[in-house]
Amino acid sequence: MYSIKNSLLILSIFVSATFAQFTAQASLSTTYDDNLLRSHQPESDMISDFDLNLMYTPGKSYLTYFFNPDYFSYKTNYLRNFFMNRLGFRNQIVLNKDKNNLFYFGAEWDIRINGADYNYYDYNQLYAYANISYNFNGVFFKGGYNYRYRSYANVPDLTNNRHYLFIQTTKTFNTRTTVIVEADAGYKSFGGEEYYSASGGGRGSGRMGSGYTTYSTTEIPSLSQAVFLARIAQSIYDKMGFFIQYRKQISLNGSSGYENQSDYYQDEELFDDPFSYESDQLTGKLTWMLPWNIKLQTGGSLTSKNYISENAFISAEDSSGLGGIRKDDQTIINFSLAKKFFPHKSWLNTLTLNFNYSYILNESNSYWYDYKNNYASAGIRWSF
Hints:
Blueprint: H1 2-19, E1 21-33, E2 45-57, E3 64-74, E4 82-94, E5 102-114, E6 123-136, E7 139-151, E8 160-172, E9 177-190, E10 192-198, E11 213-219, E12 223-237, E13 240-251, H2 268-271, E14 277-290, E15 294-311, E16 325-341, E17 350-364, E18 371-383
Antiparallel strand pairs: 1-2, 1-18, 2-3, 3-4, 4-5, 5-6, 6-7, 7-8, 8-9, 9-12, 10-11, 12-13, 13-14, 14-15, 15-16, 16-17, 17-18
């Protein structure tokens, strides 16, 4: 009986390994950035990025496990080098025989590791989501919830919890036009620190010895927002299409003590937290599938941002925020070109060469956030 059980166990492991799918992608890119810190005083650098994505799917299931280590290396500002690592899973459950009603969910753990000089950017993050997609007579409804916990070990007051709810409707017409309408609601709360101090004589021993112990808590007020989005996508012909999107972000807070960091460092959230402002944004993109497996994309966006409580400083000498509440107008232009090869090798599925260029013009009434930024990257991606 024991040998039969062991034989069945070995057989099940063999069958699982046989039908499992293991895939891997690796990419290497180099970026030239002429304003590394997105500052009014530009500083350029070359950044190399090595990214590895390992995925494992047991059997013929929809479940996928993934591991994604990523390393950023700066040529001049080498003290800013850091690792990003992701580990997680995603899955989906088919809810009807036509396979167009789906419930999908997943979770991942992210960790960022910087050098000692910039360890205040280190964080651990847990992200989880659960969404449902439902087809009702050709109209697709999607809704869901996602939660994120990010912990900054060396800046605990920026540790935060974030909750997001969304609902989306998609309809495609015979004219090959697709209309998407979406509404989101988000909430973000920050950690606080307790500072203990002892006062003179009194009853009890207290935390600091004889006398009373008092403490105070410093806390960044929570932030909440509503987002409304409308997108129109149009297929011009089989290999060309474009979309135009309008997005409005409304703060549900009258005020906040949150202040964005002035040092941009591969973490847009600390430099410009989306919860810290209201905005109107218009975005467009054209995609063209050219011959020889070449894909060209070009587009851009116009964004107007009104910050909730952040003051604008009119000069380097201004220490009181004489410009009033900060307001930014941002223009972004993007261009990308990718060429895919199919080597027909047993160990290599595809090889992709890509080039990307972006231009950012951020016009602000705050001296510290008025900048221009050009960056271009070239890279190669292998899919095994």
